[in-house]
């Protein structure tokens, strides 16, 4: 799926935006699988939070989405297995054990090792398809778009969900998960002049019954997240001239941090969601190509 940036365009520029969603972001590999199979050209990729992994893989010219998703599952399964009990106790008993505002539930050594294995010494800039990863300034709350520098740092900053993983410093700024400021960063693609935006977002499955207070809290969080996702799509669809095609994978179950074994199911859900948009996407691309050909004649 080569990029054609820098060449005269006879078609509308296409961006793939992959929003936040933790492990659910594995569905983006299914979306990429369909786009590659259908020959849809991608001119830029934007990633946020868990979506940063698929975005980075695709921008590097990645092939074999199933194999990439399998590696993603393996890395995920080991990354969130080491609980940092010292940080947790410090948050509960700050006067006794001392408190750090970088406290987190999980020890990030395994996460960092996994990202390093994936990213190596690569940089965000200079990839076959331009890549933009989104994080959030933990002090100001400002959205931070990372388009250059260490790929490792950009991914690590974009996934640093507060209380789950410690913040990550980039250029002197303490950064956390991009989802905190913009869970579906469609605006980044708009700012770079793309005309068709494939926006991959994730909703949470809702429960019909509850057997604990935690279940009630999770339901409330899911409702808030789902409404925010829908509001983001509606805003960008109404406020800008770009075509924003929502690709929202539907899940019939809750997806937790320890459900890496469900990645094949998530990929399949991503494929199904992408396939629903293919007829309209091909029509958009062909209509513009026909109009450009007529104008040239």
Supply database-style keywords:
alpha/beta; 8 strands; disordered N terminus; single chain; globular; 297 residues
Write the layout of secondary structure elements.
Layout: E1 14-18, H1 27-37, E2 44-48, H2 51-59, H3 65-79, H4 85-92, H5 94-97, H6 109-119, E3 131-137, E4 143-146, H7 151-158, E5 168-170, E6 173-177, H8 186-191, E7 196-202, H9 213-239, E8 243-249, H10 263-296
Parallel strand pairs: 1-2, 1-7, 2-3, 7-8
Antiparallel strand pairs: 3-4, 3-6, 5-6
Helix pairs in contact: 1-3, 1-10, 3-6, 6-7
Q: What do these coordinates show?
A:
It is a single chain. The chain has 297 residues and is an alpha/beta fold. It has ten helices and eight strands. The protein has helices at 27-37, 51-59, 65-79, 85-92, 94-97, 109-119, 151-158, 186-191, 213-239, 263-296; strands at residues 14-18, 44-48, 131-137, 143-146, 168-170, 173-177, 196-202, 243-249. Strands 1, 2, 3, 4, 5, 6, 7 and 8 form an eight-stranded mixed sheet that branches. Helix 1 links the parallel strand 1 (14-18) and strand 2 (44-48). Helix 1 (27-37) packs antiparallel against helix 3 and helix 6 crosses helix 7. The longest helix has 34 residues, at 263-296. The protein is globular, with a radius of gyration of 19 Å.
């Amino acid at each position: 799926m080569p990029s054609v940036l820098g060449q005269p365009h006879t078609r509308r520029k296409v961006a793939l935006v992959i929003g936040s969603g933790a492990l659910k972001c594995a569905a983006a590999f299914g979306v990429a699988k369909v786009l590659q199979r259908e020959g849809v050209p991608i001119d830029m990729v934007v990633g946020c939070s868990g979506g940063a992994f698929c975005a980075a893989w695709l921008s590097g010219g990645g092939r074999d989405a199933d194999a990439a998703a399998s590696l993603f599952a393996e890395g995920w399964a080991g990354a969130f297995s080491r609980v940092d009990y010292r940080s947790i106790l410090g948050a509960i008993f700050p006067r006794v054990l001392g408190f750090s505002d970088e406290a987190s539930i999980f020890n990030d050594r395994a996460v960092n090792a996994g990202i390093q294995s994936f990213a190596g010494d690569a940089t965000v800039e200079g990839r076959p398809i331009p890549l933009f990863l989104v994080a959030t300034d933990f002090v100001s709350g400002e959205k931070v778009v990372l388009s250059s520098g260490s790929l490792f740092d950009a991914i690590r900053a974009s996934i640093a969900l507060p209380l789950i993983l410690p913040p990550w410093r980039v250029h002197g700024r303490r950064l956390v998960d991009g989802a905190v400021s913009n869970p579906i960063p469609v605006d980044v693609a708009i700012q770079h002049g793309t005309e068709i935006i494939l926006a991959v977002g994730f909703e949470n499955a809702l429960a019909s019954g509850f057997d604990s207070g935690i279940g009630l809290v999770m339901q409330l969080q899911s409702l808030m997240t789902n409404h925010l996702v829908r509001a983001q799509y509606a805003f960008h669809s109404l406020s800008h001239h770009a075509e924003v095609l929502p690709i929202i994978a539907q899940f019939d179950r809750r997806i937790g941090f320890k459900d890496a074994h469900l990645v094949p199911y998530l990929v399949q859900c991503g494929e199904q969601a992408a396939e629903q948009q293919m007829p309209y996407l091909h029509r958009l691309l062909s209509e513009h190509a026909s109009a450009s050909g007529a104008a040239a004649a």
